[in-house]
Specification:
Layout lengths: L6 E5 L4 H12 L3 E6 L2 H11 L2 E4 L5 H15 L4 E4 L10 E3 L6 E3 L2 H27 L10 E6 L3 H4 L5 H20 L5 E8 L5 H4 L3 H9 L10 H13 L7 E4 L9
Parallel strand pairs: 1-2, 1-4, 2-3, 4-7, 7-8, 8-9
Antiparallel strand pairs: 5-6
Length: 259
């Protein structure tokens, strides 16, 4: 796929993996709309790359519809969608309190929240973006568009406390092939990336000893991933027209321990 002159939407584009992706796409001639809840950060990134910011909650149908309408009015129908919006929590399925011995289970509202943001929110954006792409004429190579989703290494080896997060990211891995098959006759490709431990705002908030220990657990290179490395793989998945229906780990060969 030739990227120059195309339009893209990047969810979660105000920071971390999404910001790096938005910046790299823009540097390669793509006009980018950023979907995010952080207006100040999102508007700053959009201004820096000559793009558009749309305040979007991926768990809300009307919000996503309004975001796509605003993005398309500003830059035309997107041919590229990158889903980076997501969050996590750390709660055991059931546990006994070390303080008083009381037993509690995973609050189901907290489980549902992660599924709604990471999995349902991702699919909501996929479905709405793909419907828009179907209205486009195919390009010279027969493609109408490409979708890249963000899963996680935790989809395959989630740690203790990651039941909701791993389930949400495992769902993204599992939907990759069937969605690619749903859209194959219309020239829309679908892939997923499974990042390991990356240098994002969430990880930067951890204490230095925790970050040092995590970095040491990565086989090679012994450091956190750089968001620019994630963005580079997104770019390759967009450019390489034979990349379809695939999920790829990007993790320095780490395999997560139980805790």
């Amino acid at each position: 796929m030739e990227l120059k002159g195309l339009a893209a939407v990047v969810t979660g584009g105000a920071s971390g993996l999404g910001e790096a992706t938005a910046r790299l796409l823009a540097a390669n001639g793509v006009t980018v709309a950023i979907f995010d809840l952080n207006r100040a950060a999102g508007e700053a990134v959009a201004a820096a790359i000559g793009g558009t910011f749309c305040a979007v909650d991926v768990t809300d149908d009307a919000s996503v519809d309004a975001g796509f309408a605003a993005a398309r009015a500003a830059q035309g129908q997107e041919r590229i969608l990158v889903n980076c919006a997501g969050t996590g929590n750390a709660i055991k399925t059931a546990a006994r309190s070390r303080k008083d011995g009381t037993i509690r289970h995973f609050p189901l509202a907290d489980f549902d929240r992660i599924i709604q943001i990471n999995l349902v929110g991702t699919f909501r954006c996929i479905a709405k973006s793909a419907a828009g792409m179907l209205a486009l004429d195919p390009m010279a190579d027969g493609e109408r568009g490409v979708i890249v989703n963000t899963a996680s290494a935790a989809a395959q080896d989630g740690q203790a406390g990651q039941a909701a997060y791993s389930a949400s990211k495992g769902g993204i891995v599992s939907l990759t092939l069937p969605v690619a098959r749903d859209l194959m006759d219309d020239g829309i490709r679908v892939n997923a990336i499974l990042p390991g431990i990356f240098n994002t705002p969430l990880m930067n908030a951890a204490p230095d000893p925790v970050k040092d220990s995590l970095a040491a657990s990565i086989p090679f290179p012994k450091r956190f991933g750089d968001p620019a490395e994630y963005a580079s793989l997104v770019l390759e998945m967009c450019r390489n027209s034979y990349f379809n229906g695939e999920h790829v780990r990007l993790d320095g060969a780490i395999r997560m321990a139980p805790r």
